[in-house]
Write a structure and sequence with these properties.
The structure is a single chain. The protein is an alpha+beta fold. About 15% of the residues lie in helices and about 40% in strands. Strands 4-3-2-1-8-20 form a six-stranded antiparallel beta sheet, covered by helices on one side. The protein has a six-stranded antiparallel beta sheet with strand order 10-9-19-18-15-16, with no helix packed on it. It has a five-stranded mixed beta sheet with strand order 12-11-13-14-17, with no helix packed on it. The N terminus and C terminus are likely disordered.
Length: about 230
């Protein structure tokens, strides 16, 4: 693997996400999301550490290597690394000591021990995105938030848009749109969105004063499940 957060192998250079359980880690968009609750917050270094461990799984990455790759040329105590591991475990609800997702090799380092499924865009499935103005914003599986919040999938930082305005949920049966109780409302094809509504290619969505257009096209999804055989060092 190269820099922290880059996932190696045959998927390099393609839009890639990695799934484990209900979670999706998207290295290109630097997002960790849950199938039900949507995007989860991690500090930048915690995200880098999780991406690094996932990319190197199931190898135990030694503490010295972690320090070198996360903080090159800088002295950082082991306590800082332990703090990042705790942050990741809280985010992914990693509480089962018998079957941990982040495994501690005491005195050596850490390893990602969960089963991974790499997902790469190809040419025989469906990819989804929205267009607003000159921006083309890809949508990921699960919850895609829309609003003024800088952590939103689709950031619309303009007056008249609520901080958490609406969301598009991408699932196995397609995509749906919900308004999140926004002040100025959400409309689809000029009709107010008052309940979850299905989206189709070319649908025009009004988010307060901003128009976005939803697109879906044949671009494919292929998955590869990676079986882990533990190996240390």
């Amino acid at each position: 693997m190269g820099a922290a957060g880059e996932i190696p192998g045959k998927f390099r250079g393609i839009a890639v996400s990695v799934r484990f359980g209900p979670f999706t880690l998207d290295s290109d968009r630097r997002q960790l999301s849950h199938r039900e609750s949507g995007e989860l917050h991690l500090t930048p270094k915690a995200f880098d550490l999780l991406a690094l461990l996932v990319a190197e799984a199931p190898r135990v990455v030694r503490k010295g290597e972690l320090h070198e790759r996360l903080w090159p040329g800088t002295f950082v105590s082991d306590a800082t690394l332990v703090g990042l591991v705790k942050e990741i475990r809280r985010a992914i609800d990693d509480r089962d000591a018998d079957v941990p997702l982040i495994r501690t090799a005491h005195g050596v380092g850490y390893a990602f021990a969960g089963e991974l499924e790499k997902v790469a865009l190809r040419g025989d499935g469906v990819s989804r995105w929205v267009v607003t103005g000159s921006r083309r914003i890809p949508l990921h599986d699960g919850h895609n938030s829309i609003g003024r919040d800088p952590a939103s999938t689709v950031v619309l930082d303009v007056p008249g848009v609520s901080r958490a305005h609406a969301r598009i949920v991408v699932g196995p049966d397609g995509a749906t749109l919900d308004d999140l109780g926004s002040k100025n409302g959400t409309t689809l094809a000029e009709k107010p969105v008052t309940a979850s509504v299905a989206l189709h290619d070319g649908d025009r969505i009004q988010i307060g004063p901003i128009l976005i257009v939803y697109h879906a096209s044949a671009s494919g999804m292929s998955t590869e499940t990676i079986s882990h055989t533990r190996r240390d060092g």
